[in-house]
């Protein structure tokens, strides 16, 4: 305490001995080290009190400017605290002291200094200041995310609830200084390095991922305003590093995803911000009016960046919906008019010159995510938007790519379209859309690819055929075959084989009449090119295949399906009996039924 030189020497030796614990790079997973730093009880007596006074003196001298020696001491102190916190048993006690508030005060002043130096275009070396800021943010991470949950998340490792419950030590309580500090750092942030902004975003993500209590304190109207402003700034790159700006957008979106997931697990009295408010601002930004921008900014390069940001935002919607409380979040998305926003995005993007297909693919992915395994969401989409309108919007974007068509296939099976035989039809409407689109597609290879896949997925089992028949797919196929001049012969044959398979399941008089009319030609003596394949299809419908089966039956495939009987007092007598054959399709495996959380049908 009386010999500052000896104190500095002791700190130097301590930091050098445990230097491997100074993993201040947020982008890297923490290194696994067998040894741990000592507990506080093993340190010299009163050392924490001495260090607090040293730190306080540095804060008091900040306004006059720290000398080089004092700058070095303050950095050494922060390194010492980071190392100490890597022994997780020390975190709570360190967090209760005033160190963090002193460090935040110094970091705020340093960041203001960095912004003003950039603003005034001073070229002095700012490396020591930047180094202190990075270590200060890493110190905050050590307190509020001791198990490095955020770094794990960024690296793609998702911790289960069981793994989280095994984390013995809790993060320190978040200081009230954090939210004002975070907000202040992003004021006039155009003068701050993109890499430092990324560090600040990493810290916010770490606080949210570290523990629910701190997360709900950090997720406030002020911090959400900052995240939306940072996101909006990502389409204006100026002379900044494009990779750093793109990374900043990616981190902001990962922070928002983490925020949404935390809010879902909290009660309304705990939240400062509602998920619906975040989504409202999110969609507003996604559909921001680019026509209001001056022409100088609306260049081809800016359009490319803006679309890249929109695609990142659309992909984040899918990430947000990948959570345990998916039905609850789907309902919030529906109440936020997400379908209208997504369709409007496709309509507005026609003014851009390129990348439209990538944007359309990401939009379809987002629509699929919102409707995934939700009959209610599918009905809402049909009522509010309708697949006929979706078809017109997609067609207005020009000739579709294979990627866009495959995404519509994925929407139909709510998974990978290549997994035919594992995934059945979950949403038949995209299939009808694809059949309708076939004559408009100029590529014969794409026509053959689509029709071949439709033939396989629609005929895979009784369930799929029944779904297609109930959706009036037969009429849609006949309408498409009427445009035979625009269809490749292999595509037409695939559709006719599909028609025969569906017709063997069920064929109405109106559908049969339309099929016969299809074969009419303007020249009586000239046969229609479809005569032979259509006759084969009609013979296939008439032919008995496999075991005898009922023509009318209950479909109990859906998880909520069942047979309701009237209440007992409405029964005609004291009891009644009900007899039925049971038919089980064994040629389709539903992945959800094989998982631990899957449901199985029960017979009573």
UniProtKB/TrEMBL annotation:
The keyword Membrane does not apply. One of its GO terms (cellular component) is membrane. The keyword Glycoprotein does not apply. GO terms for molecular function: protein kinase binding. Signal peptide: none annotated. Residues 298-541 form the Neurobeachin alpha-solenoid region domain. It holds the Pfam family Neurobeachin. It comes from the Eukaryota. SUPFAM superfamilies: ARM repeat. GO terms for biological process: intracellular protein localization. Keywords: WD repeat. This is Neurobeachin-like 1. It comes from Opisthocomus hoazin (Hoatzin).
């Amino acid at each position: 305490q009386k010999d500052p030189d000896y104190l500095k020497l002791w700190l130097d030796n301590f930091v050098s001995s445990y230097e491997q614990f100074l993993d201040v790079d947020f982008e890297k997973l923490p290194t696994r080290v067998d040894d741990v730093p000592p507990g506080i009880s093993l340190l010299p007596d009163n050392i924490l009190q001495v260090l607090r006074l040293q730190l306080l003196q540095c804060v008091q001298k900040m306004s006059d400017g720290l000398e080089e020696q004092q700058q070095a001491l303050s950095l050494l102190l922060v390194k010492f605290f980071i190392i100490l916190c890597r022994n997780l048993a020390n975190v709570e006690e360190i967090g209760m002291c005033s160190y963090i508030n002193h460090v935040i005060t110094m970091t705020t002043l340093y960041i203001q200094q960095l912004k003003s130096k950039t603003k005034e275009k001073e070229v002095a070396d700012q490396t020591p200041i930047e180094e202190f800021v990075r270590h200060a943010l890493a110190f905050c991470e050590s307190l509020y995310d001791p198990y490095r949950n955020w770094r794990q998340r960024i690296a793609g490792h998702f911790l289960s609830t069981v793994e989280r419950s095994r984390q013995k030590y809790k993060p320190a309580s978040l200081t009230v200084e954090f939210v004002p500090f975070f907000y202040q750092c992003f004021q006039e942030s155009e003068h701050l390095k993109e890499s430092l902004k990324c560090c600040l975003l990493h810290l916010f993500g770490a606080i949210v991922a570290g523990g629910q209590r701190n997360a709900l304190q950090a997720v406030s109207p002020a911090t959400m305003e900052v995240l939306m402003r940072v996101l909006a700034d990502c389409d204006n790159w100026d002379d900044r590093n494009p990779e750093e700006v793109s990374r900043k957008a990616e981190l902001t979106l990962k922070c928002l995803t983490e925020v949404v997931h935390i809010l879902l697990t909290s009660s309304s009295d705990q939240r400062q911000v509602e998920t619906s408010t975040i989504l409202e601002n999110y969609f507003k930004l996604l559909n921001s009016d680019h026509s209001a921008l001056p022409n100088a900014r609306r260049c081809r390069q800016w359009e490319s960046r803006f679309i890249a940001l929109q695609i990142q935002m659309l992909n984040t919607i899918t990430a947000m919906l990948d959570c345990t409380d998916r039905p609850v979040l789907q309902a919030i998305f529906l109440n936020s008019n997400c379908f209208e926003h997504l369709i409007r995005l496709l309509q507005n993007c026609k003014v851009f010159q390129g990348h439209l297909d990538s944007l359309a693919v990401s939009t379809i992915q987002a629509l699929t995510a919102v409707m995934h395994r939700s009959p209610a969401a599918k009905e809402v989409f049909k009522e509010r938007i309708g697949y006929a309108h979706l078809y017109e919007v997609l067609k207005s974007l020009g000739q579709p790519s294979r990627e866009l068509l495959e995404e519509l296939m994925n929407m139909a099976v709510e998974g990978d379209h290549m997994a035919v035989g594992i995934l059945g039809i979950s949403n038949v409407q995209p299939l009808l859309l694809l059949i309708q689109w076939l004559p408009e597609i100029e590529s014969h290879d794409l026509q053959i690819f689509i029709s071949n896949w439709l033939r396989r997925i629609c005929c895979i089992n009784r369930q799929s055929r029944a779904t297609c028949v109930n959706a009036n797919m037969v009429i849609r196929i006949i309408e498409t075959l009427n445009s035979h001049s625009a269809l490749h012969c292999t595509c037409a044959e695939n559709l006719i084989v599909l028609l025969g398979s569906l017709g063997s399941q069920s064929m109405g008089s109106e559908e049969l009449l339309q099929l016969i009319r299809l074969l009419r030609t303007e020249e009586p003596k000239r046969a229609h090119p479809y005569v032979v394949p259509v006759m084969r299809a009609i013979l296939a419908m008439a032919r008995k295949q496999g075991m005898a089966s009922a023509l009318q039956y209950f479909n109990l495939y859906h998880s909520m399906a069942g047979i309701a009987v009237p209440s007992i007092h409405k029964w005609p007598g004291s009891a009644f009996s009900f007899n039925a054959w049971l038919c089980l399709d064994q040629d389709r495996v539903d992945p959800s039924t094989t998982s631990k959380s899957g449901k199985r049908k029960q017979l009573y």
